[in-house]
């Protein structure tokens, strides 16, 4: 089982790196990269991601608009009450892809608010602190806000929810508070 999990993680990293090479060849180079730390339901996550800006400005008014980006992520979760047993831990990996809408200034600096709903594939079923997922495929939705500084540094806070959308029971879902830092290239 451990070899299978290691192979899945290696495959995910190779896939991401191959994707970067292909994106560069097609001039789809990412516009930014982020690192996120989250906690919730007696578990933690660390997530690295890349983003591709849509380059659109919807409902432009008074120097603001709604834009967005694609977010491709790779995360590692640590469950600290696995199968509802105190101090029993289990790690798993998650690959996610999320379209994110962002209300922001036209120059993309300063305060912003955002929301997204994406898909996630987890290497193992989440089963922590009395909350169980019945599928490895999950939806991940979030709302958040943040601030983009003049140098391109983006600091944000999100509330994220994972659930399979009642595809299969049980569907307890789990919530996380996520601190995000990103840098625009």
TrEMBL record:
Entry GO CC: cell outer membrane
Keywords carried by this UniProt record: Cell outer membrane, Hydrolase, Membrane, Signal
Subcellular localization, as worded in the UniProt entry: Cell outer membrane
EC numbers, comma separated: 3.1.1.77
Matches recorded under InterPro entries: Lipid-A_deacylase-rel, OMP/PagP_B-barrel
Bilayer topology: Multi-pass membrane protein
First-listed, main subcellular location of the protein, grouped into a coarse class: membrane
GO molecular function: acyloxyacyl hydrolase activity
Pfam family name, one: PagL
Signal peptide (from-to): 1-25
Residues the UniProt record annotates as site (Critical for activity): 164
Catalytic function, reaction form: a 3-(acyloxy)acyl derivative of bacterial toxin + H2O = a 3-hydroxyacyl derivative of bacterial toxin + a fatty acid + H(+)
Family: Belongs to the PagL family.
Binding partners and assembly: Homodimer.
Functional summary from the UniProt entry: Has lipid A 3-O-deacylase activity. Hydrolyzes the ester bond at the 3 position of lipid A, a bioactive component of lipopolysaccharide (LPS), thereby releasing the primary fatty acyl moiety.
Name this polypeptide is given: Lipid A deacylase
Organism in which the protein naturally occurs: Glaciimonas soli
